[in-house]
Amino acid sequence: MNVADARLCLLLHGLTAIDDPTLARLLLQSGSPAELAAGGPALWRELGLPARPTQALARTLAGGASVDVDRQLSALVALGADILPITDPRYPPLLRTIHAPPPLLYVRGDAALLSQAQLAMVGSRKASPAGLRAAGAFAAQAVGAGLHVTSGLARGIDGAAHRGALVEGGRSIAVVATGIDRVYPACHRELVGELEKAGCLVSEFPPGVPPLPYNFPRRNRIISGLSLGVLLVEAALPSGSLITARTAVEQGREVFALPWSIYHSGGAGCLHLIRDGARMVETIRDVLEELGPLYALQQDLLPPGDAVQSALQDLTESQQQVLSLVGFEFITVDELSRLSALPVARLLAELSYLELLGLLARGDAGYIRS
């Protein structure tokens, strides 16, 4: 992205009169940040933007920015970072399918990794030595199986997972809850340098945003949204990592957990998830078996037409059923769940797979045939 496009993205993102879901919708409907800006008030009103935000957008694009865009832009240029609008071909397709996807992503490192097969690994910041060893070992197994390891750059399990992947020569993706120019926690400064060379860092927050508590739960939906599944390595009760697991279920992702002793309080969150239906994991093979066809497809994320036709012949019975229920008018997930008798989590997984094949499209009103 050139400097002019980056500056426009920062202007749009700094506009407090338009929230992120609305900005994402406007970008998708207009086609790109440049087309949105060029459309002017007539287009914005046509896209459903109310009068006051329309006026605010016009003022901002005319030079009335409410944030120091030049400072933000200088920080991005100094880091060699990039901005991916939701309309960018490099924006990860899996993330685009979640509820309220980020309108813009800020990336340091190899942005192409975001569209490749990932396993999220999360857990306690105060992990036990056994938990740290497990995180490193499973990360090494994951990259050996062709998966990238995604986590949140926190102390404990997150850091061990990132390092376990990098030590084995794999790739790792850190989703951060600050501006992409910040390093939090500071003890991971060296790790951040390694991730820039053999992975990437990604944030939905513009440069300069500090580590605010309410941004971490928002960050978690991106960790799961980028990934085929989420592995909870070690977590007590209550635990912020369980938020990521719950979000993964809502997004139709697979959830895995390690089985800890009932006498290890630090593993109570994992046992809680297993009781509620998460797949118990002993080796990476358990993860790969459960990911099934979505993992195979992600190796070649958006296959060419012949591959799609071949994949159509290999649809499972439930995938064929879901596809038959979606027509050329939008249908909601609740209605699809009622008609198919599939649990919502299973249904969302099938919908994500069909969407990756290009057979379905997702909108605010539900799903529709492509």
Describe this structure in words.
The chain is an alpha/beta fold. The protein has 3 domains: 1-67; 111-293, 3-Layer(aba) Sandwich (Rossmann fold), CATH 3.40.50; 302-369, Arc Repressor Mutant, subunit A, CATH 1.10.10.10. Helix content is 49%, strand content 12%. It is built from 17 helices and 11 strands. A 9-stranded mixed sheet has the order 1-2-6-5-4-3-7-8-9, with helices on both faces. Strands 10-11 form a two-stranded antiparallel ribbon. Strand 8, helix 12 and strand 9 form a beta-alpha-beta unit. Helix 7 runs parallel beside helix 8 (157-167). The longest helix is centred in the middle third of the chain and has 16 residues, at 129-144. The model is unreliable at 300-308 (pLDDT under 50).
Model regions low in confidence, pLDDT < 50 over at least 5 residues = 300-308
Rounded to an integer in angstroms, the radius of gyration calculated over CA atoms is: 21 Å
Structural class from helices and strands?
alpha/beta
Give the total of beta strands: 11
Mean pLDDT, all residues: 89
Q: State the separation between the terminal residues, measured CA to CA.
A: 29 Å
The number of domains: 3
Layout of helices and strands, plus pairs?
Elements: H1 3-13, H2 20-30, H3 33-46, H4 51-61, H5 69-79, E1 82-85, H6 93-96, E2 104-109, E3 118-122, H7 129-144, E4 148-151, H8 157-167, E5 172-175, H9 189-198, E6 199-203, H10 215-226, E7 229-232, H11 241-250, E8 254-257, H12 268-275, E9 279-280, H13 284-298, H14 305-313, H15 317-325, H16 333-340, H17 344-356, E10 360-363, E11 366-369
Parallel strand pairs: 3-4, 3-7, 4-5, 5-6, 7-8, 8-9
Antiparallel strand pairs: 1-2, 2-6, 10-11
Helix pairs in contact: 1-5, 3-4, 7-8, 8-9, 10-11, 15-17
